[in-house]
């Protein structure tokens, strides 16, 4: 296992390989170690792996760097999650652009029932900070994990509120753990270790880079059931996170703001364009996500038999029986059906009491 981890790190370091190519190589060849042990001719037999990538894998000196990174992770008690590992966040794993490898330090269960992203402007107003605190305070009894980016403004207000109220929170970084940015927030990163932690797709020594911040936002959105945008200008990182969440078919909520304030424009526009549901209060948000303590149960009609289901409905139930829980887009891909057609089938099965809707547009058997 230790040796395979080194090869997994090395695979993530190969220049120009990218997430999709790396996954394709693992799928065809079997493991990261086997990828590096394969000949260039074998590598080039994998679809879309040309001479350039094959050469980079065989002759780039990434293994020695990977060994050092692994050693540093051991010393710093940093856990590594390859995308095929059981501990890798399930919500993230199903996405086409999910990181190949995650570095994590802290104490939290990524597969927790309720995970919420909360983001906003770096230039938060008092209203934005108050709303952030109120959201966390109202959620205390619901055992939610909050995710954000440790940035100035709304992000750090979220992490501070979680630390004060003893709510688990995860900060996703745009660099390695040795170079936490901004440095003023290092103390908060350490404080969240017992209930939450820090997460990155970058090795320990990697400096933060402007290119990494939008990519960091896809992790925040992808590992969460929903995203709340508290304050945002017309452009900015918070809106990028909301866009990722919408692309991943995750719920987005926006806190409405003063029409005369610059940092309300982004939230108000999300609501206007139906790219976010208006956030009014925590209880309503929970209802939208099916997070109620005592949700209304759909009564199963015992007289309905599998034999009375259509072929499409039977395929969906068989798939969910095998996979337990799947997202809407994942079911669509596996069954090769359009999302609109599938949504109607799923709604019908839910009314009949065969399946249940879960946060993040996921479905499972009842």
Automatic annotation (TrEMBL):
It comes from Aquirufa ecclesiirivi. The lineage of its organism: Bacteria, Pseudomonadati, Bacteroidota, Cytophagia, Cytophagales. This is DNA-protecting protein DprA. Residues 309-360 form the DprA winged helix domain. It comes from the Bacteria. InterPro entries: DprA (IPR003488), DprA_WH (IPR041614), DrpA_SLOG (IPR057666), RuvA_2-like (IPR010994), WH-like_DNA-bd_sf (IPR036388). Residues 80-288 form the Smf/DprA SLOG domain. Belongs to the DprA/Smf family. It holds the Pfam family DNA_processg_A.
């Amino acid at each position: 296992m230790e040796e395979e981890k080194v090869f997994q790190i090395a695979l993530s370091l190969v220049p120009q390989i990218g997430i999709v190519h790396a996954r394709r190589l693992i799928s065809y060849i079997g493991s990261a170690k086997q990828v590096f042990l394969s000949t260039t001719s074998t590598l080039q037999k994998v679809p879309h792996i040309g001479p350039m990538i094959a050469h980079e894998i065989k002759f780039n000196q990434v293994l020695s760097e990977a060994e050092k990174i692994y050693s540093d992770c051991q010393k710093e008690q940093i856990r590594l999650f390859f995308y095929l590992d059981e501990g890798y966040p399930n919500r993230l794993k199903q996405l086409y652009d999910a990181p190949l490898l995650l570095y994590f330090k802290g104490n939290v269960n990524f597969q927790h029932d309720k995970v919420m992203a909360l983001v906003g402007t770096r230039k938060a107003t008092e209203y934005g900070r108050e709303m952030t605190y109120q959201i966390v305070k109202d959620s205390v009894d619901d055992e939610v994990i909050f995710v954000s980016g440790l940035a100035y403004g709304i992000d750090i207000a979220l992490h501070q509120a979680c630390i004060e109220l003893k709510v688990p929170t995860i900060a996703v970084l745009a660099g390695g753990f040795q170079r936490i940015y901004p440095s003023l927030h290092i103390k908060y990163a350490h404080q969240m270790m017992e209930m939450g932690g820090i997460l990155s797709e970058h090795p320990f020594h990697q400096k933060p880079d402007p290119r990494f911040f939008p990519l960091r936002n896809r992790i925040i959105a992808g590992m969460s059931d929903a995203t709340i945008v508290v304050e945002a200008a017309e452009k900015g990182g918070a809106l990028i996170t909301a866009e990722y969440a919408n692309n991943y078919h995750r719920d987005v909520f926006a806190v409405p703001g003063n029409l005369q304030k610059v940092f309300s424009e982004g939230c108000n526009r999300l609501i206007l364009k139906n790219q976010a549901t208006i956030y009014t209060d925590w209880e309503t948000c929970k209802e939208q996500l099916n997070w109620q303590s005592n949700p209304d149960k759909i009564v199963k009609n015992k007289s309905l038999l599998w034999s009375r289901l259509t072929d499409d409905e039977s395929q969906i139930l068989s798939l969910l029986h095998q996979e337990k829980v799947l997202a809407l887009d994942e079911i669509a891909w596996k069954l090769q059906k359009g999302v609109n057609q599938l949504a109607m089938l799923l709604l019908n099965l839910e009314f009949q009491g065969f399946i249940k809707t879960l946060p993040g547009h996921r479905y499972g058997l009842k």
